[in-house]
Amino acid sequence: MVEPVSRNAAEDDPDGQDRDKAGGRPKKKRSFWVELPILLVIALVLTILIQTFLAKVFLIPSGSMETTLHGCTGCTNDRVLVDRVTYDFTDPSPGDVVVFKGPETWSTHEIASQESSNIVVKALRGLGSLVGFAPPDEQDFVKRVIATGGQTVQCCDTSNRVMVNGKALDEPYVHWEGEINPKRQQFAPVTVPQGSVWVMGDNRNDSCDSRCQGGGGLNGTVPVSNIIGKARIIVLPPSRWGGITDHDPQAAAQPVALGAPAWQSGLPLGVGVAAAWPVLFTGRKLAAGVRKAAGRKRR
Predict the structure, then answer these.
(1) C-alpha span between 37 and 253 (Å, rounded)
(2) Which of 38, 92, 172, 253 is deepest in the core (most CB within 10 A)?
(3) Which residues are catalytic?
(4) CATH number of the domain encompassing residue 243
(5) Which residue range forms the structural domain that includes residue 205?
(6) Which whole-number Å values give the CA distances from 66 to 86, 238, 260, 280, in the listed order?
């Protein structure tokens, strides 16, 4: 008696393994070392997408935000996670630490130009900057928002404090590099244009910000459209992990804002690596399903 030919994929492959067409032997699964480059590529792509649209890691290039953010030449600088989504829904507020592209009037940079004529070097630097492991573009700055559109900012009162709309600010984050220099702090009243912000570094003796960029005044203000995002968390080095305070200096009665929860302190690169395996696994399952469906149609 002739046995009927099975039309069921499960019967053709009772142990659940794909078999080659020649000898019916199970196909060999790709080794870990073959799949590793695929995982790395997927992780890199996911990391780039995350940092382009959701959050990006920036290296702090200078000491202008000490001691809130650490940066110096020849040492381990802080790397911060910058939220790129928040300002799509809300406006920057006083006390926010923001990363932004310097306006055209900002001619003094915090880091020297990193440009290279070597194409390979430029590509590697661009990739490193994208994932937060190389210095940022020399046009990028990190400062704290002091006043927003329509507010008048000036310095100083009799206690050497910055004032907004005639009210002295509460600034517990201010750091003085060396002796306090009242002349360095002083500037005439400036009414911030709508759609712009006035920013200053926490290290008041060592920060060229809205007070001096472009000669100060209106030239020192930063358009909101130039802001890349809000600095949320210090992610590296591990000894510096923690949230970045966004204490509102204009509301002295309010407590200092709490840092971000610990679960948010992962790097986008880590998220990309963690997501790479599920993406690859799902892709393999989909490919297997397509092969099986194609095999049934041929029969």
Answers:
(1) 54
(2) 92
(3) 64, 143
(4) 2.10.109.10
(5) 38-272
(6) 24, 18, 20, 42
